[in-house]
Amino acid sequence: MVEGKGSTLVHVLVIALSLTAFGFAIAAERRRSTGSIVTDNFNATYCAYDSDVATGYGVGAFLFLLTSQSLLMIVTKCMCFGKPLAPGGSRAWLTFLIAAACLIAGATKNAYHTKYRHVIYAQNWTCESLRKGVFIAGAVFVVFTMILNVYYYMYFTKATSQAARKTTKANSNVGMTGYP
């Protein structure tokens, strides 16, 4: 890595992983399970849900987001791997936690609707489904997390390179003359 510049590979990987998570979250929103009322041979009425693809997309989005965040934290030796850079780094963690919560909650709720049948005994029948916008909220916070992570990494490399230059400069200016 060149002093003063962050690794282009780290930038590209963080952005690519985050955009992939964003794409998966959008796909999950578009493929949310929907239910329809079905009556079986025994005259029992229940909700039948279509495919469970959105759950896989939601989990995939979470895993890509987690990989992006983990990569950045390992490279910068932040949180579990060393001393954090400076105050304010928690903003990226906050957006990460919100995005992760939306993606995991959406995937869990979507999976619940597709895995279990509920017999309906009421007169007004409706089949519950995942509320619109859960995966979209996750996708929006994935983008916020990506932006904050890119800026965090830029400022991290700038701060560490300035510290390295100050250390080098201080060492090179030491005189070799004796005291009078």
Description of the structure:
With 180 residues, this protein is mainly alpha-helical. It has one domain (4-160). 62% of the residues lie in helices and 6% in strands. The protein contains four helices and two strands. The longest helix is centred in the C-terminal third of the chain and has 39 residues, at 134-172. The mean pLDDT is 80. Belongs to the DESIGUAL family. Pfam families: DUF1218. It is a multi-pass membrane protein. Keywords: Membrane, Signal, Transmembrane, Transmembrane helix.
List the helices and strands and how they pair.
Blueprint: H1 8-30, E1 35-39, E2 45-49, H2 53-75, H3 90-115, H4 134-172
Antiparallel strand pairs: 1-2
Helix pairs in contact: 1-2, 1-4, 2-3, 2-4, 3-4
Family: Belongs to the DESIGUAL family.
Transmembrane segments: 9-28, 59-80, 92-113, 133-156
InterPro entries: DEAL/Modifying_wall_lignin1/2, DESIGUAL
